[in-house]
Design goal:
4-stranded parallel β-sheet; alpha/beta; 12 strands; 2 domains; Rossmann fold
């Protein structure tokens, strides 16, 4: 979504933008008002690991023989490999944005340990296959980072991690969040229907199972409390969440919305009293910025990139500490004055973040350094 918002502004400034991506990615661009020249390919959905490599091949076949000024890409393995190969073919500069990089991804040894823990719920044979896949991709991606001419890091923490992988300090520029505050403020919603909401992909990294544990404990103090969960995820994680919710008979207190439109997203967030984000790994978390723009107090695990952009206007708790998450959530829910004060502090904080300014800033940096 970040590139879509920035890309829209580049087009408005008179620049021609071309996008090579999956059919879904290209469709998403148009759905959100970004109208670049698109070259779509159909990914292989039946085999996720194989799909990564087939998608690289398909993406390369879609790149037109045109004179481009630069390549702009994302930090994933698939995007890194594809864009480096395009750079070699077209002989033009390569720019990448990094909004997420975990400390465990900076070396082979740490990535092995991380992958072992990440896939602990799998059978041993499958666990070894997935570990090798993840570690290999991380290793290759980190090697390719040195081929990138300019990197936009979304926090100083990410900048430090990039330097550990071998990217020189001179090529890294820290840029912050963006926001269309006028758009968000013009969206109306009903009265508060939920005590809290969460927005993000449904996966363990986002702390979604901590979220369910938290809500079970909330219900002991507030039996009628309702939690709204917005976001899509892999089938196995969605099914696991639904099993847990059914097991503890809390399905009337937790509503899972799946993917929603941009307008509906903000409308639903505004129907909540607070925003809870127990993610374990983030760069700066755009969704926190959006929640604050909706005047929602935010409770989140204390991650390195947050305070740089959100200061003390978020209620932070120790990562993985569900009891502290519980106490912080209850403190807000039981104090209407604190709810109002934290909501006002949050929206005051994010008023300075603007997609138009950010798009121009990145353009200026690229123009001056490429």
């Amino acid at each position: 979504m970040r590139f879509i918002e920035i890309g829209k502004r580049w087009v408005q400034l008179g620049h021609e933008v071309h996008v090579v991506g999956s059919e879904y990615a290209c469709r998403l661009c148009k759905e959100y008002g970004f109208k670049p020249v698109t070259y779509a390919y159909a990914p292989l959905l039946s085999a996720p690991m194989l799909s990564v490599y087939t998608s690289i091949k398909k993406a390369l076949s879609k790149v037109p023989a045109k004179d481009f000024d630069l390549i702009y890409t994302h930090e994933t393995f698939k995007c890194a490999v594809t864009s480096v190969l395009i750079k070699k073919k077209l002989k033009i500069p390569l720019v990448s944005e990094f909004d997420l990089l975990c400390p465990e991804e900076t070396s082979v040894l740490s990535s092995i340990i991380w992958a072992y823990r990440f896939y602990e719920h799998r059978t041993i044979p499958l666990r070894l296959v997935l570990m090798n896949f993840l570690v290999f991709n991380t290793y290759i991606r980190n090697l390719l980072l040195r081929k990138i001419d300019l990197v936009f890091a979304l926090s100083n923490d990410i900048k430090g991690l990039l330097e550990k992988t071998g990217v020189s300090n001179e090529r890294i520029y820290v840029v912050g969040p963006g926001l269309d505050l006028d758009y968000i403020q013009n969206i109306e919603s009903e009265s508060k229907l939920y005590e809290a909401c969460f927005l993000g992909s449904i996966e363990p990294r986002k702390g979604v199972f901590d979220l369910i544990t938290l809500w079970r404990r909330i219900l002991k103090r507030k039996p009628g409390a309702k939690l709204l969960i917005i976001g899509r995820g892999q089938k196995e994680y969605l099914e696991k969440m639904k099993r847990i919710i059914q097991k503890y008979n809390i399905h009337n207190n937790i509503k899972m919305m799946g993917f929603v439109s941009e307008e509906s997203k903000f409308e639903l967030m505004k129907q909540s009293k607070i925003f809870i984000f127990p993610s374990y790994y983030e760069g700066f978390a755009q969704v926190i910025c959006e929640a604050m723009a909706c005047k929602l107090p935010v409770v989140a695990y204390d991650l390195p990139g947050y305070k740089e952009w959100y200061g003390n206007d978020v209620t932070y708790v120790k990562k993985g500490d569900v009891n502290s998450l519980l106490n912080a959530t209850l403190t807000l829910l039981e104090d209407d004055t604190l709810l109002r004060v934290m909501g006002e502090k949050g929206i005051k904080r994010v008023k300075k973040y603007d997609w138009n300014k950010l798009a121009k800033k990145e353009l200026d940096i690229m123009t001056q350094n490429l």
